[in-house]
Predict the structure.
Amino acid sequence: MAKVAFIFLVLSTSTEWFQNIQARFARVEWNGLRYSIEELSNLGLQIEDVIDELSVISNVTANSDDEKGSTRNKYFGEEFPQPEGRILYRGNQLWKTVVDSEDKVEALIKLRDAEDITMWGGNASAIDILVKPESIEKVKNALKSQNINFDVAIEDLQTAIDEENPPIDETQIRDGHSLTWYAYHRLEDLHGYLDYLAATYKDIVTLETIGTSINGRLIKLLKISNKQPGNKAAWVDGGIHAREWITPATVTYIINQLILNWESEPKYIQNIDWYFVPLLNPDGYEYTHSTDRLWRKNRRGSGRCAGVDLNRNFGYRWGGTGSSKNPCAETFGGSGPFSEPETAAVQRYISGSSAKWKAYISFHSYGQYILYPWGYNRVVPPDYKDLELVGQKVAKAIRMVGGPMYTVGPAGNTLYPAAGGSDDWAKGTMKIKYAYTIELRDNGRYGFVLPASYIQPTAKEALAAVRTIAEAVASA
């Protein structure tokens, strides 16, 4: 079959006001000529979801005689190498809007429905919107008519993506592994680092595979323990949402700091069995590196409606508010609770373990929040005062190491109700005392495309958060 090139543009949402993902096909290139989808159909050609050789076309890309895998940024007069098949966001802008009334939210909904904007993050009073280049003037006029104030955070999203992750400096690579905390690494480097630790620190480190992803990639868990029989247990994970690159980098940084400083760690750290899963969604993560930087879900299926939101797929109050039944939605919760191998691996491991679970920490981005249950509704558990107290201590510890302000509160009230989350399941089903979702940096200046220079500052404050929760675990 002839190979056909196409672009499939996904501008995604992370807020519950906007359930439907927007996607549209651009014109495609085949054998050096440009065709519409209808024209290709008339030629009897089939468009596949995954194609080995893909050349992407957009209104502001390079001329047709540019090299494969390279596009020219006509806004800035620079050329950035692009992986073949990569979805581009040239000309898209990130705006920060202030929505202090229902009418203003409704105005954004209308723009969303018209496919002029999509959403990145927000809360009850502020929403970050991604504006398509052809809709900038329309959206600007619509916001002005509704007295919606906004600031432009990112002038050109593709430029921000291109500059987010610099090439890895080979001089920073340590003996035995390739992982650094100066750049965002691929899955191979992350897993290679875990393998290195297991081989090097056998007295305190064990490594196991707890499952495989929908596409067969390994989900690895690293345990740090002094092997004392009375130890309590803490779970720490990252990378459940593919585009949140800062979270696997943060979890591996925490692992590295604990192992390198293990002998000098306080007893309340040493007397916890630590279970780390740095990357719960390996398929989605790899897809964000190779194809679509803003992909959120796992990679079940194909096409524009592929994937399940793994943080809507856990079994506690599955399918409720904030979880969509629409497979095309960013918050699609799957066909049933734990329908996905990634979430089933977590459920199987934790519920089947004899560990004395006292803490469950899931790192996400972005927004700078310390969230505790419940997320499924605007209610709180009976021990919410304990969770609030420790959360406030975490926020203070972050500030003490030079970090920014983090907002503390129950997820459903602080952000929005979202059923099927991992922290609700940890608290509600597994009865784990201290269950938190921590939304890392930033507060919307860069959003999901946080530059790699922020890895270490962000990870240091996350380590402070983990240490503080560990203190609470010691007395739990």
Summary: DSSP finds 13 helices and 18 strands in the chain. The longest helix spans residues 455-474. Confidence is low (pLDDT under 50) at residues 1-80. The CA atoms of residues 145 and 428 lie 45 Å apart.
